[in-house]
Amino acid sequence: MRLGIAQTEPVFGEWRRNLDDAFELMERDSADLWVLPEFFASGYQFVDAREVSRLAEPVPSGPTTQALVAFCRDHDCVAVGGLPEAAPSGLYNAAVLVGPEGYIASYRKIHLFGMETLFFLPGDRPFSTCDVGEACVGIMICFDHLFPEAARSLALLGADVIVHPANLVLPGVAQRTMEVRALENGVFAATANRVGSEARNGRELRYTGQSQIVGPDGDVLVRLSEDRPEIAVVEIDISRARDKAITSRNGKLADRRPHLYTLDPAA
Ligand code: ACM
Question: What pTM does this model have?
Answer without folding.
Answer: 0.97
